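Hi R.,

Here's the chain you asked about this morning:
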Amino acid sequence: MNNFSDYIGNVQRSDPHHSITPIRVLNVGQPNTHFFKTSDGVELRLRRYQGGSKGPIILSHCIGVSSLMYAIDTIDCNLLEYLVNQDYDVWLLDHRLSIELPASYQQSTMDDVATKDYPAAVSTVCELAQVDTVDIFAHGVGASTLTMALLSGLQNVGRVVCSQVSTHLYSIDLNINKAKARLPAWLPYLGKEHLTAYTDVNAGICDKLYDASLLFMPVPEHERCNSAVCHRISTLFGELYEHRQLNPATHKALPRLFGRVNLRAMKQLTEILLANHLIDAQGNNAYLPHLENLKLPMLFISGANNDCVLPCSTLETYNLLRSVNGKSYYHRQQIEGYGHVDCVIGQTASLDVYPKVLEFLNS
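And the predicted structure, written out as tokens:
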């Protein structure tokens, strides 16, 4: 059966007591799973759901999650189902930051995803699907690293959808102040290798006290809840969603959607936020000098209420690229009432967001 439980498979998680209750069978066929290796020998995964002859299209996830964000069964129609039922050949990519892969235990950078994972994934899809180009939908850090890959010269990409972020990154003062503390930079000296949104029911007293302390984090009244995982998510990344856009089943599934983040990747993300634009892991402005490489059809999506990545982030990218490469390639949609990841996993995203993606892909 093609449900939430089956999709997770042998995912490595710390809490054996937290069972998954399948909600429904996904309205897609059985996938073909393809493992492949990058130029530095890291094993990644693609899952193909061939709805029809449109595409192919790769769906690429954010940091601290996996491709499960596109295949959750807690909403009536997820993005995977939506595109498959519109006759698209959909490939779910789990790159090295995916919490479902052993690679996520290793230290890596966003540059690694950009210059190693994307070229290998695009090459694999083109070869197996026997096509010359592939479309890509990417969210969050997946969109940042895709932009970095394209700026670095990634070929064989047709149309691109960047959800929430691309070349520039702006956030609210609370997130900027947390970034200035540079937590990922000094935690390795304390023996830490990862940050995680995951909480263990058998955690020790220190972890339990930490989770309890998060109750006092400054969060708007309408966004408060009793989920320790939800509090950790907000602490790590900022407010990733409007609670009213998540149904109870999705909110309950957050422990399965979010997990570990390696500190090297998080350190680079922190420095990008402080610089307000893409930089490499050494702090160099290695990407923005090559804006001519983004001369291809691109759609930028931002949730109007996104406090994690402010909507002005994609607006700056949109205006910048139109000034450099011409106006005909670029489109932008600001989604009212939505935040960050709820543009993908929101209970009515199939009505409010997905059609805008489809319109662009079909154009």
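The first strand starts at residue 32 and ends at 37.

Let me know if you need anything else.
M.
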